[in-house]
Amino acid sequence: MHPLARMILHRLALGLLTLFAISLFIFMAIELLPGDLAEEVLGQSATPETVAAFRRDLGLDQPAYVRYLDWLGGIVRGDFGQSLANNRPISDLLAARLGNTLFLAVYAAVISVPLAVGLGLLAALYRGSWFDRGVNIFTLSSISFPEYFVAYILMLFLSIRWGIFPSISDFGSSAGLGEMLYRTFLPALTLVLVVTAHMMRMTRAAIINLLAQPYIEMAWLKGASPLRVILRHALPNALAPIINVVALNLAYLITGVVIVEVVFVYPGLGQLMVDSVAKRDIPVVQASCLIFASIYILLNLGADVLAIATNPRLMYRK
Amino acid sequence: MSKPLLTIRDLKIEGRKGNDWLPIIKGVDLELRRGEVLGLIGESGAGKSTMGLAAMGYTRDGTRISGGEITFDGMDLRGLSERRKRGLRGKRIAYVAQSAAANFNPAHRLIDQYSEGPADIHGLTSQRDAAQDARMLYARLRLPNPDEIGFRYPHQLSGGQLQRAMTAMAMSCKPDLIIFDEPTTALDVTTQIEVLRAIRDAVRELGTAAIYITHDLAVVAQMADRIKILLRGEEVEEQPTREMLANPKEPYSKSLWAVRSFEVEERPVPTDETPVLRVHDVTAEYAQGIPVLENVSFDIHAGRTVAVVGESGSGKSTMARVITGLLPPTAGQIALEGTALPPRLAQRRKGDLQQVQMIYQSADTAMNPKQTIREILGRPIWFYLGLRGRAQEDKIRELLTAIELDPNEFIDRYPGSLSGGQKQRIGIARALAAEPKFIICDEVTSALDQLVAEGILRLLKRLQDERGLAYMFITHDLATVRAIADYVVVMQNGKVVEQGPKSQMFTPPHHPYTKLLLSSVPDMDPDWLDRTIKTREEA
């Protein structure tokens, strides 16, 4: 078997193990939440009999490990259970919301990744120049403000003052792609501003780190232009750290957008989770957590695989 | 007489240290005609590489040309724009660096790096034609499989192969001038001879002028028409090669020649005493089933030096790892004064550890740069001898005196502020601090200049005489063996091919491999390379 294939299988197995540990952790954490679900849902005036019946219905009278195993067994079969709030299957709920979250994440990533890597390369090329400083100051300030602050500032100017973009991003179910891109522009821009700095600075640092390498000096001595030195000689060797930081930020775009989704009233997974916590819709919270964890694990796996695939020393043995 | 290709007049280069600019090259002249090879020699820090790069109009970060003229084929390189200089680099002046492994880009195939110059940067030819040229040059430089080797990545080749591939790359645009910066220093002698031959033939056939930078006189004698000696940024003297070898004028030049005269008189191996260290039938492996050492046996006696020689990959350093317990052997044992040592480092008692100490090749990386000499030496003194406070201080001072460094001056300094030779002396003192009976010296002089290296060898010899130390001297340099050894163990591919007293090893008949090693060490004779190649081809 090709070493890369073996490595992917190995890491997938490890990922499953991690996911299992996370499922246990999520379940226990939620067990520790104060308050009783049945009383919360049925209200203060419910009689003890109705509460007991409700608990029996949901299996809440069972010991924790039985409920955990039930839950886990369901997930293995692809069944996340039913929402307590509206009795719909959780997998349907998640599918729609996850789609929205992915749309926003891809939107932001398509802008921010090329932008960040490009700016990082240019900053490395012109390091110490005004351009370099300017880019650094701008990206650092955008990352230094909390994202809801950035979001409200954008909303204030681009939406309320100048009325270019809508401040509420819910595009309904019948919007075309253009409409969707237009309506979600502000949350996407907020995310771009938040993640670009990290990726850009890492790209810049990874490239500059390599510029003292003898093979870079060799490239200069072959008469290569600065752009060529950066793109052809430094960048291919800096891919591993860049890929890793990109993966980390992509994961953030999916799992860390809760606040942005709430601010822009965007029907994504993050908002679903926040709503479900408020409603004590525990099965939905658990399922969302698990989805976030899987995405995180998959993205990191992807980054590791890519980092190896782009490194000839690991791909071609002696 | 034709017009010179390269003329350098009164060149001055400065390097930045903190806020000051200190001179590196202090007004050196140089002239080179087409097809001529100039040897540039000197110790490290003499400014050889700086000179070589300046001939391309290039200065490293933190250095600047502060005066003088550099004229290449009628063009003033100092006055040329960056763009014009880029047009010359690689195309008309090319560079071959010391470590080909570090100077090839690990991300690209050799052939792409070859054709980058002629096809992509300078637009002289197509990718396809450049690749065709590469194959021919690879064949001419005697690379194995010239049609396919270009499609490999740098890490898939050996050091000697890479060095030849780099020479090919430098020739890709058929330049008028090639700067060779210590191209064979990192190679084994048996590989060096092949690379020297390839370089010389290629330079002759293409009629390229060259500046050949090295610290090895015997190597430069084979390559250069003229030799220029540099010392701390200044020219000592320049002469045609044969005259320089026969009749060096300046005292410094003469001292370079004299270095190889140090030689310890061989002391016989005692027959009736237990050896300090006995390596008995040791086999070791990193991966299961692939032995890196096979049935190795030899003894080391008190007050004697055993040199373990061989090329890289022969298992010399693995031997050191087995003796120190870092790599437990799969068979055989190591005995210290007649008692078997536990195979694993973790199982050894403090007393065992104390008796076996080590001095490393690179004193730079073997010492913590954030510790003062006091801390570096104090730690083993406390750990092994249990001395603290005043007693420890006295011991440190005694050690520094023993390695010929003034305690008052050095005790509170950091390794970073020391010269290469001084650092290696601290390495020796650290090994001595444990008061061992046996010290492994792993290529301790190979990173040092000849004069400095000789000082280290003399010091080791004196300490041995005073303290009755046993040394195991790992080296690939036969001159070092001749200088310091009493007994020689020759290794190849993890096996001992021959062992015996030094006098026996250096007199025929030899084992074929020993013979190959011995005959590959360059002599200070300009005809040595031709003669050796001829003898080998006849054989």
From TrEMBL, chain A:
<feature type="domain" description="ABC transmembrane type-1">
    <location>
        <begin position="98"/>
        <end position="303"/>
    </location>
</feature>
<feature type="transmembrane region" description="Helical">
    <location>
        <begin position="12"/>
        <end position="30"/>
    </location>
</feature>
<feature type="transmembrane region" description="Helical">
    <location>
        <begin position="137"/>
        <end position="160"/>
    </location>
</feature>
<feature type="transmembrane region" description="Helical">
    <location>
        <begin position="180"/>
        <end position="200"/>
    </location>
</feature>
<keyword id="KW-0813">Transport</keyword>
<dbReference type="Pfam" id="PF00528">
    <property type="entry name" value="BPD_transp_1"/>
</dbReference>
<dbReference type="InterPro" id="IPR035906">
    <property type="entry name" value="MetI-like_sf"/>
</dbReference>
<feature type="transmembrane region" description="Helical">
    <location>
        <begin position="102"/>
        <end position="125"/>
    </location>
</feature>
<dbReference type="InterPro" id="IPR045621">
    <property type="entry name" value="BPD_transp_1_N"/>
</dbReference>
<dbReference type="GO" id="GO:0071916">
    <property type="term" value="F:dipeptide transmembrane transporter activity"/>
</dbReference>
<keyword id="KW-0812">Transmembrane</keyword>
<keyword id="KW-1003">Cell membrane</keyword>
<dbReference type="GO" id="GO:0005886">
    <property type="term" value="C:plasma membrane"/>
</dbReference>
<keyword id="KW-0472">Membrane</keyword>
<keyword id="KW-1133">Transmembrane helix</keyword>
<dbReference type="InterPro" id="IPR000515">
    <property type="entry name" value="MetI-like"/>
</dbReference>
<feature type="transmembrane region" description="Helical">
    <location>
        <begin position="284"/>
        <end position="309"/>
    </location>
</feature>
<dbReference type="Pfam" id="PF19300">
    <property type="entry name" value="BPD_transp_1_N"/>
</dbReference>
<protein>
    <recommendedName>
        <fullName>ABC transmembrane type-1 domain-containing protein</fullName>
    </recommendedName>
</protein>
<feature type="transmembrane region" description="Helical">
    <location>
        <begin position="238"/>
        <end position="264"/>
    </location>
</feature>
TrEMBL record, chain B:
<protein>
    <submittedName>
        <fullName>Peptide/nickel transport system ATP-binding protein</fullName>
    </submittedName>
</protein>
<feature type="domain" description="ABC transporter">
    <location>
        <begin position="8"/>
        <end position="257"/>
    </location>
</feature>
<dbReference type="GO" id="GO:0005524">
    <property type="term" value="F:ATP binding"/>
</dbReference>
<dbReference type="InterPro" id="IPR027417">
    <property type="entry name" value="P-loop_NTPase"/>
</dbReference>
<feature type="domain" description="ABC transporter">
    <location>
        <begin position="277"/>
        <end position="518"/>
    </location>
</feature>
<dbReference type="InterPro" id="IPR013563">
    <property type="entry name" value="Oligopep_ABC_C"/>
</dbReference>
<comment type="similarity">
    <text>Belongs to the ABC transporter superfamily.</text>
</comment>
<keyword id="KW-1003">Cell membrane</keyword>
<keyword id="KW-0067">ATP-binding</keyword>
<keyword id="KW-0813">Transport</keyword>
<keyword id="KW-0472">Membrane</keyword>
<dbReference type="InterPro" id="IPR003593">
    <property type="entry name" value="AAA+_ATPase"/>
</dbReference>
<dbReference type="InterPro" id="IPR003439">
    <property type="entry name" value="ABC_transporter-like_ATP-bd"/>
</dbReference>
<dbReference type="InterPro" id="IPR050388">
    <property type="entry name" value="ABC_Ni/Peptide_Import"/>
</dbReference>
<dbReference type="Pfam" id="PF00005">
    <property type="entry name" value="ABC_tran"/>
</dbReference>
<keyword id="KW-0547">Nucleotide-binding</keyword>
<dbReference type="InterPro" id="IPR017871">
    <property type="entry name" value="ABC_transporter-like_CS"/>
</dbReference>
<dbReference type="Pfam" id="PF08352">
    <property type="entry name" value="oligo_HPY"/>
</dbReference>
